[in-house]
Amino acid sequence: MRADARRNLDTLLQTAMAVFASAGVDAPVREIAEKAGVGIGTVYRHFPQRSDLVAAVFRREIDACADAAAVLSAKHAPFEALAAWMQRYTAFVAAKRGLAKALHSGDPAFDTLPGYFDQRLRPALRKLLEAATAAGTVRPDVDADELLGAVASLCMSAHNVGSGRAERMVALLVDGLRHGAKSP
Amino acid sequence: MRADARRNLDTLLQTAMAVFASAGVDAPVREIAEKAGVGIGTVYRHFPQRSDLVAAVFRREIDACADAAAVLSAKHAPFEALAAWMQRYTAFVAAKRGLAKALHSGDPAFDTLPGYFDQRLRPALRKLLEAATAAGTVRPDVDADELLGAVASLCMSAHNVGSGRAERMVALLVDGLRHGAKSP
DNA sequence: CTTTATACGGAACAATGTTCCGTTTATCAA
DNA sequence: TTGATAAACGGAACATTGTTCCGTATAAAG
To answer: What angle do CA A78, A147, B100 make, to 5 degrees?
Structure first.
């Protein structure tokens, strides 16, 4: 792959992420291309359809969230790493409320996203959970899937718009994980 | 209101309902205008925005569903009327799965729809319920709101696509209403 | 029948997704 | 270093669709 192509792809994804975050996923392709300093043709060579760009940005954010698990795990004690990652995941889900619409739009470009979501995030959380359980700071009867789903529900609910409510609920959830741990 | 205007408005709403049903609520305005045999300008005079047309069609379908209650009530015994209307409502909700997206689009044209929905359908169902309860064929501890919500949930669930599953579940629900009635 | 306010139709405009192709440039062999 | 070339670039042009505007047609009233 040519160096300029790689460069453009990177700035494109970065810019698209920023634009989607501030103007929503319906932002015009022209605007993204302009802000990234590339032509429209460049965008469409990398992403044949607009939805492909959206999906790529999404996948990238899933990756970032999943990768954060290992970093946090190396930097903190098991329980603290778990708690920190849960907040990281909360931020991710909360910021992506617009995704639900896109996912249900029927566009084939989004078909593989739910699977990718599971494939990357579930193992990430499972490792954190297992480490904390092994350390005795978290109860052993909690399922990674259920936890991911619960947080998503908390964040998606219409009553949780704004003002850290979702974060507080998730913090409560995480505190609940301590109950029944081997060593308190 | 001029006669031709009234005529055009009616055919427009009828046509739009048919097109939305077959091609989805994203069908182009031009297509609707053409099928209705009117110019685009005519559509936009009656409905300043595309979403206003969608909302009008919706309101009309809510009306039809609500009005069906009185008709069924006059034609059948209380319980049979209730059961028939529940199926009518089921068909209405099932057909309008695309509505959820529209409702959450943030377009102000849809702001009053949820309220209208309640205002028309809740009393309709309440009257049917009260009549059946008074006749002793339905238990008295059922709330119209809850019933409407339950049916909506049954229909909206992604697992209920196709093949009368929702209808069967609703029928079950209705049969459940008989339990604990004064006279079995 | 004439008048007039109303409604009509569709051309024209604007925004946006997508395609196409002439031009530029990174890469590499000589 | 330089020339060849395949890859990538940029943006004009096209297609679709929502929306506006205005000249024309017509229903309604006297």
So the answer is: 145
Q: What is the DSSP letter of A109?
A: G
Specify the length of chain A in residues.
184
Which one-letter amino acid corresponds to residue B50?
Answer: R
Residue closest to C5 C1′ by Cα? B2
Between CA B127 and CA B135 the distance in angstroms is 12
The token duo for A108 is 């084939």
How far B122 CA sits from the closest chain A CA (Å)? 23
Q: What is the spatial distance between Cα A62 and Cα A66, in angstroms, rounded to a whole number?
A: 6
Whole-number Cα distances in Å, B39 to B8, B22, B35, B45:
10, 21, 10, 10
Q: pLDDT tens digits, residue range A14-55?
A: 999 999 999 999 999 999 999 999 999 999 999 999 999 999
The nearest alpha carbon in chain A to B104 belongs to A101
As a whole number of angstroms, the distance between CA A17 and CA B145 comes to: 42
Q: Which residue of A has its CA nearest to B97?
A: A104
B28 touches strand D (CB under 7 A): yes
Q: Do A104 and B104 touch (CB under 8 A)?
A: no
Distance from CA of B139 to the nearest CA of A (A): 33
